[in-house]
Specification:
Length: 193
């Protein structure tokens, strides 16, 4: 396999910035508990990590609606946790929750904008959760655990009752609080620089 490296600071002509940008993310909670398992009987998904199926992990994505005048800024919250009843040889009980502030440069239909934020923003945040879980379990007694990739293309904001069981929308009060904290944090960092 040959690798090539482009040392230029500019993006290649066929690569451009996404219209959806993650402005800030933060974990709201992380809990990982190593279960009592026989290490010789851990589920074998690959040579490196135990297998995880969809029956062992649940997730939820919530979309914070934008404030007046900020139609292109959203807050997405992702929760991922193990189910209560796990196989005896599953290595960890865990729960993780993360939120992110996103800006989308999309002036089209508001429902399409929400859909793009939920699918792509949820994917970005789920990737952060996956990496954090892997990093933290590397130092746990049952060894590393890697979440599988999730397909979020079928999700859309629950604008009508019963439209989606996985995605909910929330009021903007939390979104405004988060933005205020982020703005305050950015100002303090600018002063230090």
């Amino acid at each position: 396999m040959t690798a090539t490296t482009n040392c230029s600071n500019a993006l290649p002509p066929d690569m451009k910035l996404s219209p959806l940008q993650l402005l800030h993310s933060q974990f709201l909670g992380i809990s990982i508990v190593a279960r009592k398992v026989n290490l010789d009987t851990l589920m074998a998904g690959s040579d490196m990590y135990p297998a995880i199926s969809g029956e062992q992990v649940e997730s939820r994505i919530e979309l914070g609606l934008p404030d007046e005048g900020e139609a292109n800024q959203f807050v997405v919250k992702v929760s991922v946790h193990t189910v209560k009843e796990l196989p005896d040889n599953f290595p960890y009980q865990f729960a993780m929750q993360i939120e992110g502030i996103f800006r989308i440069d999309h002036d089209g239909d508001p429902e399409e904008r929400k859909r793009l934020v939920v699918i792509n923003g949820g994917s970005m945040l789920t990737g952060i959760v996956r990496e954090q879980l892997l990093a933290l379990t590397l130092r746990h007694k049952n060894g590393p655990l890697l979440l599988p990739s999730f397909d979020l293309r079928g999700l859309s904001p629950a604008s009508k009752p019963g439209t989606s069981k996985s995605v909910g929308t929330s009021a903007t009060k939390d979104s405004a609080k988060i933005r205020k904290r982020v703005t305050s944090r950015k100002k303090s960092l600018d002063k230090e620089a």
